[in-house]
């Protein structure tokens, strides 16, 4: 799960997150007394903030969530790195299920567009169908 522009944002706020995928240039020495797994602890906040708000607003919401546990002086943030090799097969299965689930909303959208072009009535059920099918495509 990637958060667009989150790393530069938290660096501007004074945090120094630990990378789980290390290069020669990075180190794991930290001065924080508290260690905070951002994606593990704040998953629901991240999901709600980034799906319902703009990028800037979502960043501020997540910042407030992180600041509940401490500030940049006494806390070290851990952010997920790349996916381990052991989980690759599970990721492929999930991606296949997601692609299959995305076929349903595309069918619903085509029906919706066809009704609009033909000047037919668009009912509440059409909106519900699209929203329900889109929701099932994300895990």
Describe the fold and architecture:
The chain has 139 residues and is mainly alpha-helical. It folds into two domains: 6-81, no CATH class; 88-136. The protein has helices spanning 6-12, 38-41, 43-52, 55-67, 88-117, 124-136; strands spanning 18-19, 34-37, 75-79. Strands 1-3-2 form a three-stranded parallel β-sheet. Residues 21-28 have low confidence and may be disordered.
Q: What's the arrangement of secondary structure elements?
A:
Blueprint: H1 6-12, E1 18-19, E2 34-37, H2 38-41, H3 43-52, H4 55-67, E3 75-79, H5 88-117, H6 124-136
Parallel strand pairs: 1-3, 2-3
Helix pairs in contact: 3-4, 5-6
Quick rundown:
The chain has about 140 residues and is mainly alpha-helical. It has helices at about 5-10, 40, 45-50, 55-65, 90-115, 125-135, and strands at about 20, 35, 75-80.
Nearest-integer average pLDDT: 79
Rg for CA atoms: 20 Å
Strand/helix succession: HEEHHHEHH
Helix content: 55-70%
Alpha-carbon distance between the two ends? 11 Å
What portion of the residues fall into strands of 2 or more residues? Answer: 5-15%
Number of helices: 6
Biggest β-sheet: strands ordered side by side in the sheet: 1-3-2
Please provide the count of β strands.
3
Largest sheet: 3 strands, parallel
Going by helix content, strand content and strand pairing, the class is mainly alpha
Tell me, what's the shape?
elongated
Q: Which residues form runs of ≥5 with pLDDT under 50? A: 21-28
Total domains:
2
């Amino acid at each position: 799960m990637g958060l667009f522009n989150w790393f530069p944002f938290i660096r501007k706020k004074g945090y120094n997150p630990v990378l789980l995928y290390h290069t020669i240039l990075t180190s794991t020495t930290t001065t924080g007394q508290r260690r905070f797994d951002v994606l593990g602890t704040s998953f629901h906040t991240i999901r709600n903030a980034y799906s319902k708000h703009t990028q800037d607003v979502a960043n501020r919401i997540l910042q407030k969530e992180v600041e509940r546990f401490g500030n940049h002086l006494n806390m070290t943030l851990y952010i997920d790195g790349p996916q381990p090799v052991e989980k690759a097969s599970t990721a492929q299965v999930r991606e296949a299920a997601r692609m299959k689930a995305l076929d349903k909303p595309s069918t619903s959208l085509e029906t919706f567009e066809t009704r609009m072009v033909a000047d037919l009535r668009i009912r509440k059920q059409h909106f519900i169908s699209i929203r329900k099918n889109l929701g099932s495509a994300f895990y």
